[in-house]
C-alpha cells in the first residue's frame, strides 16, 4: 500500500486547503475549522476566514477535552502521517472531509455528515476507527461516490453545562442555556452547506448520521428549525432522550456541585462564580468529573430543556412523544439498534435486587409494576448474574430499542435495521450484540482484526448507509402474496449474515412488551436512569463534593 501524497485545493472565500491523496484515489482533509467562540460556555459562531488564507489539513485537528475513559475495549489503528491527536478547549471545532476517488469540485455528489457518540463526554472524529477513507472507498466501488464529513464538537462541562449564571451571561449573545455542543454541530452543518461544493458535494443533498449521543444529536436536529439543511437522517442506537433531559434548575445543581469540587464559593454573586469557573484550568474540570458524577464509570451529559435549542419556546420531545408523534419533515429516516445496548452501563449495575424492585413498585402502579417484575424475572432471591442480565435488558428496552420500535410504527416509511450479531472481541462484552457494533463494523477501521464474516456484514452495513444516502436503500416493506404490504427490517444476525426479515415475524425485540409499557414510558425512563446513573443522587446537593 503506497503512502499518501500531499495535495492542495481551493475553497472559495476561505483560501487554499492542504490535504492528502490516498493510494486508492480518495482525498482527505483534517482539522478544518468551522466555528469559534469567545469564552467558555458561550455559543460558537461560524468561521468565515482562515489565517493567512490557507489551512494545513494534513494533520489531525484538536478535539474536545475529556476525562480519561476507563473502558473502551477496541484497538485503534495507527495513522502516523496525520500526527498526534491532541485535546484543546478552544481549537476543537473542526471537520474532517473525505472526497471519493475521482471526484472534484462541482461534482454535486451526495454528502454524509457524521456526529460521533460518547455520552456527550467522550469521543472524537479523530478516532482512527472512524477514518472515513474506508466508507468512501466502498461508495466508489458500488457506484455511489459520496463525500463523507466527520465533526468534532464541544463535550462535557464545556459543551453542555447549563446554569442560572450561564443563562444570564448568554442573554447578550442570543440567549440559551447549555447545549453548546449542539450549537457547534449546527454551525458545522451551516459550514458544510456553504462550502461543500469545493469538495465535490451537493449542499442540497445532505444526510446526517450518528451513533449513540451522535444519534441523539441527529434527532435533536430533526426536531429543530434548521432541519431544512439536510434531506435524510440515520439514527444508530439512540434518540433524543437517551442521555436524559435536564431542566435549567437541574443543571444548576450540577453547576453548584462543580463549583464546590473546584473550591469556588457557591455563595458568590452569579457573575463572580462564573468568572471563577472560567479561570479554572480545563484539566481541573476533567479531573473532578467522576467525583461530581458520584463515581459513575460512564458519566454523561444530556440536553438542557432551555426553550431555545429547538427554537424559541419549544420543549424537548418527551419519551412518550415517540409513541404517536410524527415528524413534520419531508426527508427520509433510517433507524437502527443493537440487541444488547444496555451492556455499555455494566459497571453501573450496582443496585441490589431489593433496591431495584422497590424502585419499580414505588413508581409504577399495579398491574404494570407486577408485570414488569415478571417480564424481567426480578425477585429478591435472584443471583448477581441474573440481576446483571435483567438490568442490561431493562436499560436496552427502555432507553434504546423501544423508541426505535415506536418511531418505526409512527413513521412506516422509515428504513429499519437491527444488530443481533454477538461480539467475539476478547473483553467483558464478548457474546453480546453490544452498543457500538453498528459503527465499529461498518466504518471499516477494525477490518485488520475482524473475522471474514464480520468484515462481510460490516461491508453490507456500510453499503446500506451509503445507498440510503443515495436514495437506493433496501426496501422498508415488501408485498405479501395476498397483495398487502409487509414492513421489513435488515437484521445483522448472530450467524454473521445480513438478511431482510418481516417485522411482524421477527422475534428479536419484545414488541408486545413495548406495546404494554408505552403508556408508562416516561416513568420507565426515570427508572432506567436510576439504574444507569443514580440520577436522583446526581441531582441532589446532599451527595457529591462538599456535601
TrEMBL record:
Keywords: Hydrolase. Residues 13-470 form the Carboxylesterase type B domain. One of its GO terms (molecular function) is hydrolase activity. Pfam families: COesterase (PF00135). Its EC number is 3.1.1.-. InterPro entries: AB_hydrolase_fold, CarbesteraseB, Carboxylesterase_B_AS. It comes from the Eukaryota. Belongs to the type-B carboxylesterase/lipase family. This is Carboxylic ester hydrolase. It comes from Moniliophthora roreri (strain MCA 2997).
